[in-house]
Amino acid sequence: MVFDKKEECGLFGIYGASDAVQQTFFGLYSLQHRGQESAGIASSDGENIQCYTGMGSVGRVFRSGGSALEQLANPIAIGHVRYSTSGSSKPINSQPFITEYSQGQVAVAHNGNLINAPLLRAEYEAYGHIFKSTSDTEIISHLLAKPTHVSKSDPLAHVLNHLQGAYCLLFMFPDRIEAARDPYGIRPLCIGKTAEGHYCVASESCALDAIGAEFVREVEPGEIVTLNQDGVSSRFFVKPGTVKPAHCIFEHVYFSKQNSNIFGQNVHEFRKRLGRQLAKEHPVDADVVIAIPDSGSSSALGYAQGSGIPFDMGMVRSHYIGRTFISPDQKMRELQVRLKLAIIPEIVKDKRVVVVDDSIVRGTTTRSKMLALRQAGAKEIHMRASCAPIRFPCFYGVDFPTKEELIANNKTIEQIRDFIEVESLGYLSLDGMLGCVDRPKDNYCTACWSGEYPIPVDVRLNKFTMERHQMTLFDNTVTEL
Ligand code: SF4
């Protein structure tokens, strides 16, 4: 990976376990790669909801919270790790959000991006609603509380039909968890079951593995899954088969953890396929294949398998600092990059080196890594990216830079090669990427490569759209009811 793209969020929820809050903590820990800006857990004893949120990684939030986990100890819990894809990085935007309305309490946790949130918020503000955050998620509580929505036979399904964009949502009411996935199935969400028979939900199956739960199935696009004292039940808020799925293929290329199974495929195996295809499309005579760890590792292995060139570990990643791109500030990200990747000169010195990474976004950090490789003695450098050139921004929950900042939007492949100072550069084709999926090719979103957005978007939007005012409210990072 190239450290200049950003992540989204991770969700975990479990019903009925005596140690539900601890399980949620470990589930979130395994989803930490999806966001390190803030973390939070809301829990319920069946009647009342409590919540604790804070800035930073899961370990940091719950260490600084002291006995927070003990205080939250209840048998129903949901948790969230956040990277801000809507609204800036500040305590007030931490999730889960808890609200009390005419029907009682609800906690909401969201992964994705609601593209109609600014419009909905403007409508509600016109009627005097007050919002405390600048996140797109808060509008959902207001929709739930609207009297004409409350009176519907299934208010939650009714509210979900008002949302546009990418969303996996966990709602915790005092007596149950409701997990919902948008009709396009853009972000992953799955159901698991623990050895004790408790049902849980998670953004990726790696969180199920972390707590020893078995994978049951994915939450289907347009489905609401309820976890309560009767076990698990399901209903659809959009008729199945009426919307063509648009799974985010970038989840496979980069975001998700290698041991996760998403969209019906293991992430590591998928990336190896990408690498083998890359070797077919962009062969080169070389002595060694190395990866930019960690997200380039699986595709580098695949490239080595496909090309017959030996794989070796030419770069070592420090695991003691967080994923660099998650830091919201560019200067901090670049400082972290230098700390994070170290080259093993003995592997690259005087060699013709193939370097495989998952993608190139801005190109600036790729360039600095290529220069470092050259300083370490690499004779030739052949850069290979296991996805097509990213030319368009994402409006569905991935915080890429603006279109203008995307290097492939401004330069030809040859100009990029020249900029990063390598002997050759090869990107996997979009067809090659889609050749690696198990589901029908047209069931995936490819908008950041193709510019074809499955849900129409207003290209003027960005993550700060709802921040018209400088917020002067400070949050003590703890919310308790
Ligand atoms: Fe994923 Fe790209 Fe589509 Fe965003 S635009 S959902 S990153 S494939």
In short:
This protein is an alpha+beta fold and 481 residues long.
For the largest beta-sheet, the strand count, sense and barrel status come to: 7 strands, antiparallel
Give the CA-CA distance, first to last residue.
41 Å
Strand tally: 23
Summed up, the domain count is: 2
Question: What does the secondary structure layout of this molecule look like, with pairings?
Answer:
Layout: E1 9-15, H1 20-30, E2 38-44, E3 49-55, H2 58-64, H3 68-72, E4 76-82, E5 97-101, E6 104-114, H4 117-126, H5 138-145, H6 147-150, H7 155-160, E7 165-173, E8 176-181, E9 190-193, E10 199-202, H8 205-210, E11 214-218, E12 223-228, E13 231-236, E14 247-248, H9 249-255, E15 261-262, E16 265-266, H10 267-281, E17 288-291, H11 297-307, E18 315-317, H12 330-340, E19 341-343, H13 345-348, E20 352-357, H14 364-375, E21 380-385, H15 407-410, H16 413-420, E22 424-427, H17 430-434, E23 444-445, H18 447-450
Parallel strand pairs: 14-23, 17-20, 20-21, 21-22
Antiparallel strand pairs: 1-4, 1-10, 2-3, 2-4, 5-6, 6-7, 7-8, 8-12, 9-10, 9-11, 12-13, 15-16, 18-19
Helix pairs in contact: 10-11
